[in-house]
Amino acid sequence: MPSRGRAVGLLVVVFVAGLLAGFGLSRLGLHGPFGSAHPRRGPDSFVQALTRDLDLTQAQQDSVRGILARRAAAMDSLWRDVGPRFETLKSTVRSDIRAQLNPDQQRKYAEMNKRFDAMRAAQGGSRERR
After folding, report:
1. Distance from CA of residue 26 to its chain's centroid?
2. Which of 52, 83, 94, 121 suits a disulfide with 34, CB 3.0-4.6 Å?
3. Rounded-to-integer distance, Cα 59 and Cα 69, Å
4. What is d(CA 117, CA 120) in angstroms, rounded to the nearest whole number?
5. Whole-number Cα distances in Å, 11 to 7, 32, 59, 113
6. In the structure, what pLDDT confidence band is assigned to residue 33 with cuts at 50, 70 and 90?
């Protein structure tokens, strides 16, 4: 059924977008307006990961720290705008998909979304406003 295929495709796109956004923010260690209530790792964690993966020199590490510090306000501003729009779109997509499912599938889909949301929150990728 074409509409069911589109719904599944859209679910995959939203799922991947959420994973990428959560992963990107957690790797950057940015607090952002949608960060979790518990302390995040911070930019130093990101610099450490880059140093480990790319063998950064001390000068490169210092430069990356400076870049992150200079861009932090812009990232926070972007997420203040994008975060609510993403959450609205996610809710709409979930609702549209739920409408395509039978009652048993709806129950399973709700549980799947709870697990996904819990995983995001545990990884510090919660989109709740502070």
Report:
1. 8
2. 83
3. 15
4. 5
5. 6, 25, 43, 11
6. very low
- CA–CA gap between residue 87 and residue 121 (Å, rounded): 14
Beta strands in the chain (DSSP E): none
pLDDT digit string, tens, across residues 83-128: 899 889 999 999 999 999 999 999 999 999 999 889 888 776 544 4
Angle, CA of 68, 130 and 127, to the nearest 5°: 75
And the tokens for 10? Answer: 């859209």
* Rounded Cα–Cα distance for residues 14 and 97 (Å): 11
Least confident of 8-12, 41-45, 110-114: 8-12
What is the pLDDT at residue 30?
45
- What is the per-residue pLDDT for 129? 38
Q: Are 129 and 57 in contact (CB under 8 A)?
A: no
Residue whose C-alpha is closest to residue 89's, from 15, 1, 2, 5: 15
Classify residue 69 by burial, with Cβ atoms within 10 Å: 0-12, 13-18, 19+: exposed
